[in-house]
């Protein structure tokens, strides 16, 4: 079996500035970086395996935190348009350290979602927030989109 044989095929373009990959959520070509490759594979997994509706997901979602514009890598919304999950991507060469979790936690201070996900394509951590008890719990599986929507009617 060839390496990457089971990975999805993405639309790419070769330009003078490098390789671009088509981002189906943003509907445009984006420079192909290691982090972007992780994003595209993870979004593909959410949409095609877990059946998350692509129309209820956004890449590079802008937020304002303490007057500073920031961007969440991916945000998943419920059917009412409420954010329910933030995903933060790193390149496979980047360790998922406390700094990465601090970054997504800061984004969540604005959005107040139920789930936070961090991945570098090699490791994945998902935690469910519990705002009543002011804590979070790491869970072993990503929830289905239906479960996300049930938790946020």
CATH class: Alpha Beta
Distance between the termini: 45 Å
Number of structurally distinct domains: 1
The CATH architecture designation is Alpha-Beta Complex
C-alpha-based Rg, rounded: 16 Å
- Structural class by sheet pairing and helices: alpha+beta
Averaging pLDDT over every residue, what do you get?
Answer: 89
Work out the strand percent: 35-45%
Regions with pLDDT < 50 over 5+ consecutive residues?
A: none
Give me the strand/helix succession: EEEHEEEHEEEH
Oligomeric state as shown: single chain
CATH structural fold name: tt1808, chain A
Percent helix range: 10-25%
What is the count of β-strands?
9
| Overall morphology | globular
Strands of the largest sheet, in order across it? Answer: 4-5-6-7-8-9
Major beta-sheet overview: 6 strands, mixed
Helix count equals 3
Domain Type I restriction enzyme R protein N-terminal: 34-143
Protein name: Type I restriction enzyme HsdR N-terminal domain-containing protein
Pfam families: HSDR_N_2
């Amino acid at each position: 079996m060839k390496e990457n044989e089971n990975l999805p095929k993405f639309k790419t373009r070769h330009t003078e500035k490098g390789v671009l990959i088509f981002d189906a959520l943003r509907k445009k070509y984006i420079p192909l970086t290691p982090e972007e490759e992780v994003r595209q594979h993870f979004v593909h997994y959410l949409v095609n395996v877990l059946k998350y509706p692509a129309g209820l997901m956004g890449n590079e979602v802008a937020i304002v935190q303490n007057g500073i514009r920031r961007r969440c890598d991916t945000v998943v919304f419920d059917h009412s348009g409420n954010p329910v999950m933030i995903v933060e991507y790193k390149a496979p060469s980047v360790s998922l350290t406390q700094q990465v979790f601090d970054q997504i936690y800061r984004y969540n201070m604005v959005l107040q979602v139920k789930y936070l996900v961090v991945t570098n394509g090699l490791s994945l951590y998902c935690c469910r927030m519990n705002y009543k008890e002011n804590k979070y719990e790491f869970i072993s599986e990503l929830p289905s989109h239906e479960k996300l929507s049930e938790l946020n009617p």
